[in-house]
Design goal:
2 domains; single chain; about 0% strand; elongated
């Protein structure tokens, strides 16, 4: 590699043609992939009957499994921050109600003043 002078022409290391060595155009890569696919399919076809035999010998019985233990804490954990937020929301709701009452009283007072001026 140290003595290599690049000609900037692609040349496959497998077959010497003008494509990258990982190209699907390469007959060597094509042959390798074909053989690999054949082997994988062959392995899958041979393992299928064994798997089927194993599955036929398995009988599921739910009594063979103990029930899971109860949860250690409830899913609704009491978090101090959650409690504070709930209190704050309640206080804001009360303040909103008081403001609504004040608005009604203010409107009535304005109406009263307008009637007195006439």
């Amino acid at each position: 590699m140290k003595n290599h002078i690049c000609s900037k022409i692609e040349k496959c290391i497998h077959c010497g043609q003008n494509h990258k060595s990982s190209s699907l155009k390469c007959p060597v890569v094509k042959s390798f992939r074909t053989e690999l696919t054949r082997k994988i399919l062959q392995l899958n076809n041979h393992s299928t009957p064994d798997t089927n035999l194993m599955n036929k010998n398995i009988i599921f019985n739910s009594t063979n499994f103990p029930p899971p233990p109860p949860p250690k804490s409830s899913t609704l954990s009491i978090n101090p921050m959650t409690i504070k937020l709930d209190e704050l929301i309640n206080k804001l709701s009360e303040a909103k109600n008081h403001l609504a009452n004040l608005e009604v009283k203010h409107d009535k007072f304005e109406q009263f003043i307008l009637e007195k001026k006439l």
